[in-house]
Each structure stands twice: as structure tokens, then as C-alpha cells.
Design brief:
heterodimer; A: mainly alpha; Alpha-Beta Plaits; 3 domains; two-stranded antiparallel sheet; 59% helix; globular; B: alpha+beta; 2 domains; 2 helices; 23% helix; elongated
Chain lengths: 386, 163
């Protein structure tokens, strides 16, 4: 039976009519221009142009999702663009304002270290026990403040759950892009126990952050320091930190995704991803496998970029809690056995309705958060080129 | 229709509504809520609250409360002293500072004030009270031992001897 399923071509659901697709895209078009069309927000011309391009880009991708009924490949275009343009906009601003990618100690003392979402789980225990935030930033709710990032993360987590890692994370796109380059994986046999490593990293980093009173992951292990901002190498310690960042980035974000065609940093290392998995339990949207239709060919397991499917989970009819809701498994299933699902409803009962309900929320969030980052990156390029 | 699907669709609709109100209502609300929590940035970074201002004519010296790092933190205890505004400082500052407010100077601090705001700073600290450590030609080596310029102030952090 498994051989039969393997011989089937990937599911190609009939494309939706152009009229229907346009109608379904209309709310996203309105939302895009609502997010990027405010001239007061984007005072300079380059930002205005970048906002318009981003709005159009996000709308076209959503239209293609509606037209083709496929999710993954269109989402991936957005996500890779986000991953590539985030460092462009971020580094451009750093160099403009500060003159360097290294964080000078003055900026830390002034509380001007930009705060990304990665340290959120690391701050919880020190804050709970001592009311202290162990991060050299500002708690203010302005754009670089911790309150703003925590606020946006909270709101988006309510909507996306672990989908944050597919529709919002501005780091994961680089490795997803690298993983898309080779036609076939060079390393296919992956030890399933590696899935537990992010939980171990999370536990170690949370306890270390409490013990050392510093955001331990940011100080020592974040691979993305290599493409954002790093600890200025004032001494040997700083030099060692920067070497670790570069090696982790090269290994986990470039080399291993190329060899395995997986998001290896996300699957095997990222403590924030492990933390975010917890919120999949409260998310109303999930992926389910219709066991009546599934002939376990395991194409879905091979397609999953995050190792969120195993033989056992497929047999149970569900994904693992690390599922990022990227849609790769749904798109590849030749029997349409994996479906988008709303908890509490019958499996495979109007799955397209569940997909649409999830995608409207997820894409709205992606436009608001990721879209603005894409626009900043484009504006930076326009500033440099024009 | 049974209750569970009704609850499921209601929750999915509520999630969609949450997405739509996020930029206008939820994000500002959550941000303000988090900002209003009784939390503070670790004093090793912020330098601790100001406890005293010493007027020095055209400029003033702010003395902060001593900062005692937590048990396993790599920094030493220190006290931060700020000189501001930078524009009113002489080319060379040499001030005796009474840190603990007992009327006796505790340290004498000497540093040059370069006109270029990005020029590196160096400081010498002579200890007049054994509680405060002397520093020679210190730059910005550690959070507990430094001289830096932040906006319109020059900050010096003097390490304390272990009590």
C-alpha cells in the first residue's frame, strides 16, 4: 500500500477560479493598504515606495494561495524575503545611527539595545523572582522597547501559536531559503532524538539566565548575531563570543539546511521555538491526519521542514507539538489526508474553511509585522541605490 | 450541530477578530500593560537610581546608589557618578567627590573631555576612602569599571571593595 501511495503524484487540487480568488483576496488587499498606506507613518519617499511594493507583494502571494490552494511555496517566498530583508534594514539602521553592528557598552547603559523576541523566555524567571529584566534595553513601549516586542508577541501568539515560526520569525527565512536550494537532501537519515535538543537548550538557557543574571542565549549562542548585532569585541571574551556566533550561523543556518533540506536551527537548536511550541496547545488551529485516507507513505514526514512529523505521530493522526503550520505536509499529500483543522470540529470536514480562517489571521499578522520589516529592508535598499 | 464544533468555530472566529484588532487595540494595550508592570532593568546595565546631585557651578555631579550584582554575575559592586551637561564641562575635569554624603571626599576623579563626542575617554580615580577602588587609565573594560559618554553626560563607574 505504501508503494501505491508513493507512486501517486503530489496532490494538485483544481485551481480556484480567478474571480473567486480575487474576491477572497480583497480583504487582504484592503488590509495591506491599511497597514502601508498611511502617509503620516511613512514620511520619506523611499519608505512610501517600499510600503506600496510590500503591500502588492503580500497581496499577490495571498492571491496565489487562494488560486492554487497551495500554502507552503507562497508562504516560503514571503518568509525567505523576510529572512533576507530583515538584516538589510536592521544593519542599515544600525550603521546609520550607530556606525557599527557591534553593540557599544554606552548603548547598553543607555538602554538602547534593540530587543528581539528571542530573550523573552529567558527574562521570565529573573523577572518573576526579582522584578528585574536582565537585558540592557528599555522597558518603554516605544518601537525598540521590550514592552513593544512582548506586546506584539503576545498578540500574535494568540493568533498563530507555533505558527509564529512560519509567519513572523524574522530569522528562520534564511535557513528556509538555503534549504530550498538543493534539489535533494544529501543527508536523509536524521536522528529523531535531535528534536529534543531545543528543549534542552531552552532549559539550560533559562536556568543560566537566572543564575548569571544575563540573557545567556544572546550572550553566547544566538547564531543570528552574525547577521544582526553582536557584542563589540572589546576583549578576548568578546572575540570568543563572536566566533561562536559565526560558527553556529555557518553550521546551523547555512551548511546543515543545505545538506538536509530542513530548518536545522529551528528543529535542533532554537530555544524560542521550543518555548513557542507550548502555545500550540492553546492555538485553536492545528494539522490533522485523516487516518481513513492516509496510506502512510510518509511523504509528509519528508516534506516537513521542522521534523514535526514522525511515523508514530502519523499513526496517531496528528503532528508533533513543534508543528509550525507552514502547510508543507498538506501541499505534498497525494491523498489530501493531512488537513488544516479547527479543534473541536470533525476531521476533514470542510478543511478549506479551516485553512482560510487560519490564513486570514496569519496573513494579516504577517503583513503587519513581517511586512513592515520587509518594507524597511526595501526602503534601506532604495536609500542605498537611489 | 454539537457543542464542540460550535465552540471550535467560535474560538476560530475570535482568533480572527484578535488578528484584526491587534494593530489598533491589542498591540498598544499589551505594550502599555507590559510597560506598566513593576519591573526594572538590571542595575548593572542602568547604573541604579540617582540618590544625590552635587552642584558644581556650570555643571553638576549625580551620584547613584551603589549597585551590588547578583551572586553569580561576573561584575563587581560599583557606584556610578555622572557629569552633565558635557557642554559645560572644562577641558580637564578633576573633582573630589563625596559619594556617601558624609561631608568627606571619597575619591578624586580626573579625566579629559575631548571635543569629539566619539573620542575614547580615559579616567584616573584616586581612592580617598578604602571602600572605593582606585583606577588608572581606565576606559570601558567592564560594566563595573568604566568611563563612557551617554548623550549629554559622562558616566564613571568606580568599583567597590568587597564588604
Amino acid at each position: 500500500m505504501a508503494t501505491d501511495a508513493r507512486n501517486l503524484p503530489p496532490a494538485r487540487p483544481a485551481p480556484r477560479g480567478i474571480g473567486w480568488s480575487l474576491l477572497l483576496t480583497l480583504p487582504i488587499l484592503i488590509w495591506s493598504f491599511l497597514m502601508f498606506g498611511n502617509p503620516q507613518v511613512h514620511a520619506d519617499r523611499q519608505m512610501h515606495i517600499a510600503g506600496a511594493i510590500t503591500a502588492l507583494f503580500m497581496t499577490v502571494l495571498f492571491f496565489m494561495m487562494m488560486r492554487t490552494r497551495a500554502t507552503y511555496r507562497w508562504r516560503r517566498i514571503f518568509f525567505v524575503s523576510l529572512g533576507l530583508l530583515f538584516p538589510v534594514g536592521f544593519i542599515y539602521n544600525l550603521v546609520l545611527v550607530r556606525g557599527t553592528m557591534g553593540i557599544p557598552i554606552e548603548e547598553m547603559i543607555a538602554g538602547r539595545t534593540p530587543f528581539c523576541f528571542m530573550p523573552i523566555p529567558l527574562l521570565i524567571l529573573p523577572a518573576a523572582f526579582t522584578r528585574t529584566l536582565v537585558f540592557p534595553g528599555s522597558i518603554a513601549s516605544n518601537s525598540h522597547g521590550m514592552a513593544a516586542m512582548v506586546g506584539i508577541w503576545l498578540a500574535m501568539t494568540l493568533v498563530l501559536g507555533k505558527g509564529w515560526c512560519s509567519y513572523a520569525c524574522f530569522f528562520g527565512g534564511i535557513e528556509e531559503g538555503v534549504a530550498a536550494i538543493p534539489p535533494r537532501a544529501k543527508i536523509r537519515k536524521l536522528d529523531p532524538r535531535l528534536r529534543l535538543v531545543p528543549w534542552a537548550v531552552l532549559l539550560a538557557m533559562v536556568l543560566l539566565s537566572l543564575a548569571l543574571f544575563e540573557p545567556a542565549y544572546c550572550m553566547w549562542l544566538c547564531p543570528f548575531k552574525a547577521v544582526s548585532e553582536y557584542v563589540a569585541a572589546r576583549n578576548l571574551l568578546g572575540l570568543i563570543q563572536n566566533i561562536i556566533f559565526i560558527l553556529l550561523f555557518a553550521g546551523l543556518v547555512i551548511v546543515l539546511p543545505f545538506l538536509t533540506k530542513k530548518r536545522t536551527q529551528c528543529s535542533w537548536f532554537c530555544p524560542f521555538g521550543a518555548f513557542q511550541s507550548i502555545f500550540n496547545k492553546i492555538s485553536i488551529f492545528e494539522m490533522k491526519i485523516d487516518k481513513d485516507r492516509c496510506k502512510p507513505c510518509l511523504l509528509c514526514q519528508n516534506a516537513c521542514p521542522n521534523l514535526s512529523l514522525s511515523k508514530e505521530s502519523v499513526a496517531r493522526g496528528e503532528t508533533l507539538m513543534s508543528c509550525m503550520k507552514c502547510g508543507a505536509c498538506v501541499d505534498v499529500c497525494p491523498r489530501e489526508a493531512i488537513v488544516w483543522h479547527i479543534k473541536g470540529t470533525q476531521i476533514a470536514w470542510k478543511p478549506e474553511r479551516a485553512r482560510l480562517m487560519f490564513l486570514y489571521g496569519a496573513w494579516a499578522m504577517a503583513i503587519m509585522f513581517g511586512g513592515s520589516i520587509i518594507a524597511q529592508g526595501l526602503a534601506a535598499i532604495l536609500h542605498i541605490v537611489v | 450541530m454539537k457543542l464542540r464544533p460550535i465552540l471550535g468555530y467560535s474560538a476560530a472566529t475570535a482568533t480572527l477578530i484578535v488578528a484584526l484588532i491587534t494593530p489598533f487595540l491589542l498591540f498598544p494595550l499589551f505594550s502599555k500593560g507590559v510597560g506598566a508592570l513593576p519591573l526594572h532593568v538590571d542595575e548593572v546595565y542602568s547604573g541604579g537610581p540617582k540618590v544625590r546631585t552635587i552642584p558644581m557651578g556650570a555643571y553638576s555631579i549625580d551620584v547613584h546608589r551603589p549597585v551590588y550584582p547578583h551572586m553569580l554575575q561576573s561584575e563587581k559592586p560599583f557606584v556610578q557618578i555622572d557629569w552633565s551637561p558635557v557642554s559645560a564641562l572644562p577641558q580637564h575635569v578633576s573633582d573630589a567627590v563625596d559619594i556617601d554624603g558624609d561631608g568627606q571626599p571619597d575619591i578624586r576623579i580626573n579625566f579629559d573631555v575631548p571635543k569629539d563626542p566619539k573620542a575614547p575617554l580615559r579616567v584616573d580615580v584616586v581612592s580617598l576612602n578604602p571602600r572605593y577602588q582606585a583606577m588608572q587609565n581606565a576606559g570601558k573594560d567592564k560594566f563595573s569599571r568604566l568611563i563612557v559618554r551617554v548623550d549629554n553626560a559622562i558616566l564613571v563607574r568606580v568599583p567597590l571593595r568587597n564588604p
